[in-house]
Amino acid sequence: MPKALAECLRQHTCLYASFDRTVNADFSRGEGTAKYQSQVVRHASYGGRYGGGLHFSAADYGWAEDEFVFPAEDNFPYSSGPFEGTVSLWLNCDPDADLAAAYPVDPFHLSRHPADGSFYLDLTRPDDERYGSPRKLRFGMYGDSPERQRHLGGQLIVVGDLGWKRGEWHHVVATWRNFNSGRNDAAAEVYIDEVRRGWMEGFEHRLTWDLAGMKIGLGQRFAGLLDELIVLDVALSAAQVQALHRLPGPAGDLLQGSP
Length: 259
Fold this sequence. Notes:
By secondary structure, this protein is mainly beta. It has 4 helices and 16 strands. The protein has helices at residues 3-12, 95-98, 238-245, 252-255; strands at 13-17, 27-28, 35-36, 41-44, 53-57, 68-71, 83-92, 105-113, 116-123, 137-142, 154-159, 170-179, 186-192, 195-203, 215-220, 223-232. Strands 1, 2, 4, 5, 7, 12, 13, 14 and 16 form a 9-stranded antiparallel β-sheet that branches. Strand 8 (105-113) and strand 9 form a beta hairpin. The protein starts with a helix and ends with a helix. The relative contact order is 0.25.
């Protein structure tokens, strides 16, 4: 396994949850205890990517957005100065067969408001007026946007032609650089199964957050399996994303120093 990836994970992990034995984080800089709604989320001791995982049946749960949450403070790499980071997770679902047509679905979400100070990975509605069908994967990055309108203040990377089927695991990684730099040098990328599928660069991203009390939400309106959540305070390179995707076991093996 590339030494560079192991060292990167040990130095830069903010939050890691393997979900192999428990719903709580294996490692966290902040509070690592999860809160979740047991009627729509259960921990499966087998059936995850490598061992256990989270099983969501929240397709009709609505807009409460409290299906599964970790505290965001210290677990997400926000800074008032320049900051970068990576979110990595594995998903198993058929977006068009398993999810309710009435809702967008957010496997990962952290926001002050959906269109103001928001980071999210979501699957769009079918027949969306902007994107059509089938569902697309988006990485949304809204900075400070007092108007709180979806067409203002945000950057969106949209990836289509997913072709996901139930029973298949897919690795989703989002990276970003130079946010809050004060310059037009921000960049972001989305990888699916180690392939860079979407990117943006040369924009300014201003964000003012107080993470105290904010939550990292998983599986909002999601139906399927979710596993191996990693949040880093560094943007992984393409080679590191590839190495992470090809790990023969959970990333926790590298965090714990296993060869």
